[in-house]
Amino acid sequence: MTDQPTTDVAATGTDWVAVAAELDAADPLAAFVDRFEPAEGVTAYFDGNSLGRPVRGTAQELARFVEQGWGTRLIRSWDEAWMRWPEETGDLVATAALGAAPGQTVVADSTTVLLYKMLRALADAQVRADPARTQIVLDTDNFPTDRYVAEGVAAERGMELVWIEADPASGVTEEQVAEVVSERTAVVLISHVAYRSGYLADAAAITQRVHAAGALVLWDLCHSAGSVPVHLDAWDVDAAVGCTYKYLNGGPGSPAFAYLAQRHHTTVRQPIQGWMGRRDPFLMGPGYEPAPGIRSLVSGTPPVVAMVPLRLSVALLAEAGIDAVRTKSLALTDLAWDIVASWPAELGVTIASPRAHEQRGGHLTIRRHDFAEVNARLWEQGVIPDFRAPDGLRLGLAPLSTSFAEVVSGLQAVRDLIS
Ligand SMILES: *Cc1c(COP(=O)(O)O)cnc(C)c1O
């Protein structure tokens, strides 16, 4: 930290700098902050939920990749390693972040493309088994790409969308899901952590509700993978997708992951039948025949270069442990909460995220009418949250790369600008 925030004991009664110093001193993950590339001129980075920071050594790892795997081994690397990277990297993510046994996860396309493949695959399997299951359930506050993909799949397959009206300041509840699922439901698509409010849905209970209606669930884990513990196998989830450039620090445009539970491997078929997901791709044979197991989720040539930073960052997450990450995440968002809650009411800042730990993901959203302009000025100063219309400032506090002192100094900068 280069800038020390001004201590505001008089106004709030609490010396937040001292509180943060104690929390940092007691933080078992404190040393991980220095395992990320330093960012010159940035004093507080609150956007780990949008673009995670690069792990230290990422540049060297990419250089080594260019010189060795690509530059020297050349095309031999496909056989020696790269062909297996979608499944192998998928297993690394599954083990570190998803609570999934190996053989059920691949890293492949973008989140959007994988969402399409998985939603189409699950919907088709359901309609095949029971033509009356023509509904896809999702919520009005789901991430735009999820809504658009579902609209496309529904139009393509003559299916109907059933919308849950989610509260933008919280998210989809078990009761809301129970109300809409029926013998007509094919698939339910929900985000585990709501991108706007940070609301953490009860994935285990909702999955049970969906199954009780004979439907399948597809979870979007973009805002939970790497931040909130996920137990896909234990929760009996059918399928999930998520991106790797947020809390998984894979870098801009790093490929997404898709999980499909073992029990569906022979019945669920994704729609983009490409040669890389075919049995024996180099036989170049006639007709598509899916490769056995999770490999059939792959369509074309895997984005190998883009997996290099991800493989490094997932190893870092595995070393820290997702439960320790979650503990720190809650402590970071608690601190941010307490600081904002201590501000005088006339500043007009409200918190639009759940207070209860069991309902809170990895970020907090605070609201004020002029946060669009405030955000722009913060960015100029090297304090970097992000803005979500109409008036939300999102504080994405990535536990491995964020210190408690950073939370205090960044929020002090917000307060200075609005006072
Ligand atoms: C970030 C995010 C996405 C992003 O999709 P891309 O295809 O990677 O652009 C999708 N869904 C949710 C919930 C997200 O938070």
TrEMBL record:
Homodimer. Transmembrane segments: none annotated. One of its GO terms (molecular function) is transaminase activity. This is Kynureninase. Its cofactor is pyridoxal 5'-phosphate. Signal peptide: none annotated. Catalyzes the cleavage of L-kynurenine (L-Kyn) and L-3-hydroxykynurenine (L-3OHKyn) into anthranilic acid (AA) and 3-hydroxyanthranilic acid (3-OHAA), respectively. It comes from the Bacteria. Pathway: Cofactor biosynthesis; NAD(+) biosynthesis; quinolinate from L-kynurenine: step 2/3; Amino-acid degradation; L-kynurenine degradation; L-alanine and anthranilate from L-kynurenine: step 1/1. The keyword Hydrolase applies. It catalyses: L-kynurenine + H2O = anthranilate + L-alanine + H(+); 3-hydroxy-L-kynurenine + H2O = 3-hydroxyanthranilate + L-alanine + H(+). Keywords: Aminotransferase, Hydrolase, Pyridine nucleotide biosynthesis, Pyridoxal phosphate, Transferase. Belongs to the kynureninase family. Its EC number is 3.7.1.3.
